[in-house]
Amino acid sequence: MLRPEDRILVTDLYELTMAQAYWAHGVTGQATFSLFVRDLPPERGFLVAAGLEDVLRFLEDFRFPPEALAYLESTGIFARPFLDYLAELRFTGDVWAVPEGTLVFAQEPILEITAPIIQAQIAETYVINQVHLQTMIATKAARCVAAARGRGVVDFALRRTHGVDAGLKVARCSYLVGFQATSNVLAGKVYGIPITGTMAHSFIMAFPEEEEAFRAFAETFPERAIFLIDTYDTLEGARRAARVGRELRERGRRLLGVRLDSGDLLALSREVRRILDEAGLPEVRILASGGLDEYRIEALVGAGAPIDAFGVGTRMGVSEDWPWLDMAYKLVAYEGRPARKLSPGKASLPGPKQVFRFYDGEGKMKEDILALREERIEGGTPLLEKVMEGGRLLRPHPALAELRERFREAFGRLPEPYKALREAPRYPVRLSPGLEALANTLTAPREALGES
What we know:
Elements: H1 13-24, E1 30-37, E2 47-48, H2 52-60, H3 66-74, H4 80-87, E3 94-97, E4 103-104, E5 111-116, H5 117-122, H6 124-148, E6 152-155, H7 164-176, E7 181-182, H8 185-191, H9 201-205, H10 210-220, E8 226-228, H11 234-250, E9 257-260, H12 265-278, E10 285-288, H13 294-302, E11 309-312, H14 314-317, E12 327-334, E13 337-338, E14 353-359, E15 365-372, E16 381-382, E17 385-389, E18 392-393, H15 400-412, E19 429-431, H16 433-441
Parallel strand pairs: 6-7, 6-11, 8-9, 9-10, 10-11, 15-19
Antiparallel strand pairs: 1-5, 1-12, 2-4, 3-5, 3-17, 12-13, 14-15, 14-16, 17-18
Helix pairs in contact: 2-6, 3-4, 6-7, 6-13, 10-11, 11-12
């Protein structure tokens, strides 16, 4: 895992070369940078903001320790007086952000940082890295939860995530949006997430007989026995599991469930359910895993598969259908002067901002207005909150359980069409009069912003 003292070097070289040039030429004024996603992927009707806690911890601990400075000096790129300046550098800025678990859309700031430009510039890479991964995964996981329609979903992604840190963040973000548990033991320790697991096919194959393996596991874990039944013949595995399940019940114990990990999950789950019910074990749950994502879950649930819970791994843990977001961190103001990138297709919106959310008479989300921060939009709920001032947190980090509840409430207010897995409509986000007027004074063509 990344050592805390190395975190400051999680940056692109040009952040540091720009910083030295800023310093050398006295460009050290207050800057505001905005972090947002330019446009949503085709199969995403919403995004779930995540990763803020890691950003704030990084900014709290923002410093260049001697070991980092020694490495930078060894590159021969940086002047000694600039390195001495970095040795004393701390983050002294402000952060406005939407709380984790908030639903956001294209062009809406997830967070904005206002600080001396060198501080805000050096932070860019780490900020994007943390918020990008976690927002992308939280969104993918939320789609899995929505597809399951109330059935349980568990994180099995660790072994194929892109590194240990990614595995931890996948467990955290999937739990934030409604997964019930994770197989990741370290995530259980770090984040307090319930941990769960069954067995591998190797356990079954290590015993002379499949039924013997089931009995051994049940004897070792009589309160948490879940059998993997597809190592050889799935239906025969179900019959053997049922026999052991009846033996457990005779001893005052019970078989919690069986897991299917391959084959035609719809047909097999129906047959396995029949076998268990005929054996007098209607309480035994069926867990399915193996290449699942929101699309396969939706199909299984829609077909009435008698599956009680889904173990979701690789395809969620790497956001297989859309493994990146067009996330940007752009300068929007410097020393009180609004700034705007004008590049075709990548034009940004100027000035520090606020997002106002409007709801209909039934409490469902209706539209957002993207405004300048100083504007007040009557009837709208502001989404960005000031969470750090002068480099200090204004309140403790919310508990993961609180963020989980926040997301549950927010997702319940999103109209169903925007939750569609395919061809979801674009949620309405419009510019306030003040923001639109300011943008127009900076001469970017309207079509560059995707406006009609």
